[in-house]
Amino acid sequence: MDAPYDPQAFPPFAVTVDVVILTVRPPQLEILLVQRSEAPFVGHWALPGGFVGVEQSLVDTAQAKLVAKTGLSVDHSHLEQLATFGTPGRDPRMRVVSVAYLALVPRLDVVEESTGREVSAWKTVADLHDLDLAFDHRAIAVAGIERARAKLEYTTLATSFCGPTFTMGELREVYETVWGHTLDPANFHRKVLTTEGFVEPTGKQRALGKGRPAKLYRRGDAGFLNPPLQR
Amino acid sequence: MDAPYDPQAFPPFAVTVDVVILTVRPPQLEILLVQRSEAPFVGHWALPGGFVGVEQSLVDTAQAKLVAKTGLSVDHSHLEQLATFGTPGRDPRMRVVSVAYLALVPRLDVVEESTGREVSAWKTVADLHDLDLAFDHRAIAVAGIERARAKLEYTTLATSFCGPTFTMGELREVYETVWGHTLDPANFHRKVLTTEGFVEPTGKQRALGKGRPAKLYRRGDAGFLNPPLQR
DNA sequence: GAAATAGTGTCTTTGAGACAATATATG
DNA sequence: CATATATTGTCTCAAAGACACTATTTC
To answer: Closest nucleotide to residue A211 (Cα to C1')?
Structure first.
């Protein structure tokens, strides 16, 4: 820093990061929420988040929140900036500008819900409107959900909801869950395989007990779908 | 505010808004920049911007910057949040988080360049790499330009670069300028007219002196193109 | 073999792109 | 009429969607 911090020189702002963490558990799209134990909004549900450190970058802060809540390494999830929410009064205590991030993570069988005294839980997106959300976190969550829905159309991000390997049916289930309607398995299969770099064959198969075993794929190196998948 | 401002309670952040203001002057896409007269980065070019007031919303701040620089009423331009840039050290003086906005405005014949002692000017996007840009404003500008390019594909935002009425050729010129290549006039014409709500006929014509006079249109009420225009 | 899930083939329709043809102005 | 720009028409190709059909497993 060239000049010392002078509190009089600029308005008193606090900057926080809030993360919309989404996962897919067919047939439900789920969001990770934390139940507040302190004022304001005691008992209300909130997005995982917190203050940004003075020497901490925004994305590092978001990443730290994500890892703390899910235990997931960064390689196995997707994290991107969503939007910034800074309307005066959104936090009753003081002027807080919140940079929201969106994370797409695979469904973990082992989830560290409610570590310590803090209650955190996966909530289905369909149940969101019945929950009391703190601050403007409902609007942030909705923005994240809509961003996810839109990006599945023209990116390969659906694979971020899957584990390291997945079947074509599992990938299709991701789309069906996020978009809330079924897709034609035949057309989906063809679309994914004819899109260069969407998925790569592993050569292995997975038997689910019933039906023909499905081939296993891993994510390819393509980031965008051109032309996109139709919602 | 429920609680008084306590400087110790949170890290000292400043929050600013910077606006990427783009316009089209065929065959160039142009960006409005301001030449800095104060340290740091004296003489460098910067995006129009400034601190956010404690009681001022982010978008209002951006809108105020836009109006101050262009004199344009909000109805005649498009303004949206772009992204937030907050890497520690991006401002050498202190920790500053900048919320960037993107504005698309019609080309004004009367531009208030360099009002007062402040030097502001339209610069072609092609010349950007030859300019000294302050802070991380080059990255912000590039993000805005890419956002504009992408959104022309699937939204009707190209009309924001036009005046209240425009010909099909003028609208096509917007696309050609922003994307940097020509489009087939016949196919473009058909695509725009078959997209419900993209433009509305005014019934009037505009003669440019040579060639057949073109019909005049105004923007329709559709926001999105489905299917999109191909870049 | 029946049921279930995976995967392939085929036909129809829609729309993009190339480009020829027509329309209406100016000089 | 030559030229320029605007607009319409036509043909071809790529891809989406519907859906019949085949493949491979468990029970």
So the answer is: C5
